Structure to design on (116 residues):
């Protein structure tokens, strides 16, 4: 019903920045919350940041102060700005969107690698 496609990942040196984008298509209505998860090799998928339709944000401790989540409801777009990247930020980053007490949708992920 709703498809999400991430882009913007790549190889970055420590201290560098990346801008991730998420394009929503299909029937992207009533999506109260959008978010980003990161899954490092051999680890569980972890929440990075969320943003509601009203613009209220929430960040994981490791992301707070470095990452910025945003969304453009009119354009059906989500964004995650990654700043001051560290090697431990290396992960596949997934875009998500959901309806209250209902459906949750996932993208296929984009690889972010932070290495010297």
């Amino acid at each position: 019903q709703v498809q999400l496609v991430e882009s913007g990942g790549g190889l970055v040196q420590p201290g560098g920045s990346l801008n991730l984008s998420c394009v929503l298509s299909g029937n992207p209505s009533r999506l109260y919350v959008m978010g980003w998860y990161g899954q490092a090799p051999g680890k569980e998928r972890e929440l990075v940041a969320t943003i509601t339709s009203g613009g209220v944000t929430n960040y994981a401790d490791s992301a707070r102060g470095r990452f910025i989540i945003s969304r453009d409801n009119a354009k059906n777009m989500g964004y995650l700005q990654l700043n001051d990247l560290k090697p431990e930020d290396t992960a596949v980053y997934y875009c998500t969107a959901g309806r209250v007490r209902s459906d949750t949708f996932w993208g296929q992920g984009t690889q972010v690698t932070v290495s010297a």
Observations:
- The chain has no helices and eleven strands.
